[in-house]
């Protein structure tokens, strides 16, 4: 028989061995759970499939509908690698449309890779992103989205856009909340799926009551012509346009300035054009059915801005509704035009060019009314630019 001391030693050994086994089992289960999370959450952030292959995706709602989503327990990160299509495998028409930018897609549906990284513009509790598509043959894709790390609603549309590169598709994505979102687009037999990280503080606009930063001394008088020398450098001017308070006192009473901020294009047409960046001006209109949006595009040299303006003018003259181009009267006198868009309906876009900068206003007004607010906004934008020394 074992002595009491020997029996106590055996029991102690058994306890220590059992405890070691329990701890080892817990560590193994934790490691296994981590591997599962990594596999699920760290997979490719974009998937391209074709019905002729084995990869399939589930069918979602229409791109024009609103989807409300719930959280996924495995959606913990939006950081994942996205592979672009090698240049040698990109069709000639897609490469011409992208103008040298890297693309993602296959078959009938393509997009610009860099557009996926746009964090969104925060406007009135909605985060918006403009997004380009190229379809072959032309048509409108179906777009759905869901939030992976919480609840939220997603809305998307698809509209035709025509310029010197041909006809393509531009979408507006609306995200109800920041976070990690999965967007799926389908056209024909092709599907593109990717994740977008919408940031809570993406391009915040300061309140309209913010004081001017006075980075650039204002011009004492309004020059009669557009100067090409003596203007501030493009980074300084761009920063001022993105942050200085916008004076909306000259605007119609039903238009209210919400603020200014940064703006980022997803359009591949800006690649290699001497483009430095953009500033966005946000409005609210009290008029029923009216919506307005406006941006300043700043270039590194005045000739680049003039080339961009001339290209836009040629596109509207060639592809816009016949007889819709007119010339607004602005002070100081600058090259400018307004034209109706082919789509969406009842939409007019106005442009001006001055020095390093082009100003663009897009207004949608029901056909039953005619306010001409785009001219007033364009003039206010020009006056603001001159005051900043641009």
Order of helices and strands: HEEHEEEEEEEEEEHEEEHEEEH
Q: Tell me the fraction of residues in β-strands, as a range.
A: 25-35%
| pLDDT averaged residue by residue | 74
How many domains? The number is 2
Q: Do you know the CATH topology of the largest domain?
A: Protein Transport Mog1p, Chain A
Quickly give the structural class. Answer: alpha+beta
Q: Return the CATH architecture of the largest domain.
A: 3-Layer(aba) Sandwich
Tell me how many strands there are: 18
Overall geometric form: globular
The DSSP helix count reads 5
What attributes does this structure have?
single chain, 390 residues, Immunoglobulin-like, Protein Transport Mog1p, Chain A, 8-stranded antiparallel sheet, 18 strands
What would your notes on this structure say?
This protein has 390 residues and is α+β, with helices and mostly antiparallel strands. The protein contains five helices and 18 strands. It is globular. It starts with a helix and ends with a helix.
Give the gist of this structure.
The protein has 390 residues and is of the alpha+beta class. The protein has helices spanning 4-41, 92-98, 234-243, 302-319, 373-387, and strands at residues 46-50, 66-69, 103-106, 109-112, 121-123, 126-135, 142-147, 152-156, 159-163, 166-175, 179-187, 190-198, 255-263, 275-285, 291-299, 335-340, 347-354, 357-364.
């Amino acid at each position: 028989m074992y002595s009491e001391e020997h029996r106590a030693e055996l029991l102690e050994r058994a306890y220590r061995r059992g405890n070691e086994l329990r701890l080892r089992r817990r560590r193994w289960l934790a490691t296994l759970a981590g591997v599962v999370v990594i596999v699920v959450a760290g997979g490719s952030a974009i998937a391209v499939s074709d019905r002729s292959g084995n990869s399939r995706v589930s069918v979602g709602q229409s791109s024009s509908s609103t989807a409300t989503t719930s959280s996924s327990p495995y959606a913990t990160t939006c950081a994942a690698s996205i592979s672009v299509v090698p240049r040698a495998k990109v069709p000639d028409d897609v490469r011409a449309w992208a103008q040298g930018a890297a693309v993602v897609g296959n078959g009938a549906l393509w997009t610009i890779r860099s557009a996926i990284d746009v964090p969104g513009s925060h406007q009135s509790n909605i985060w918006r992103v403009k997004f380009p598509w190229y379809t072959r043959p032309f048509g409108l894709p179906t777009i759905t989205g869901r939030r992976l790390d919480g609840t939220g609603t997603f809305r998307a549309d698809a509209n035709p856009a025509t310029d010197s590169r041909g006809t393509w598709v531009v979408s507006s994505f609306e995200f109800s909340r920041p976070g990690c979102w999965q967007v799926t687009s389908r056209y024909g037999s092709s599907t593109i799926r990717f994740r977008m990280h919408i940031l809570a503080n993406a391009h915040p606009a300061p309140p309209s009551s913010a004081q001017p930063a006075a980075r650039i001394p204002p011009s004492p008088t309004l020059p009669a012509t557009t100067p090409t020398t003596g203007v501030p450098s493009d980074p300084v001017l761009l920063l001022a346009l993105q942050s200085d308070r916008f004076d909306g006192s000259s605007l119609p009473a039903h238009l209210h300035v919400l603020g200014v901020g940064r703006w980022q294009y997803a359009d591949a047409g800006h690649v290699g054009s001497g483009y430095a960046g953009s500033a966005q001006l946000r409005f609210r209109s009290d008029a029923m059915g009216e919506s307005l949006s406006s941006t300043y595009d700043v270039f590194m040299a005045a000739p680049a801005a003039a080339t961009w303006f001339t290209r836009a003018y040629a596109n509207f003259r060639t592809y816009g509704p016949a007889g819709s181009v007119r010339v607004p009267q602005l002070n100081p006198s600058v090259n400018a035009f307004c034209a109706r868009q082919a789509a969406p309906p009842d939409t007019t876009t106005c442009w001006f060019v001055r020095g390093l900068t082009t100003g663009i206003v897009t207004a949608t007004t029901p056909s039953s009314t005619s306010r001409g607010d785009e001219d007033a906004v364009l003039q206010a934008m020009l006056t603001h630019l001159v005051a900043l020394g641009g």
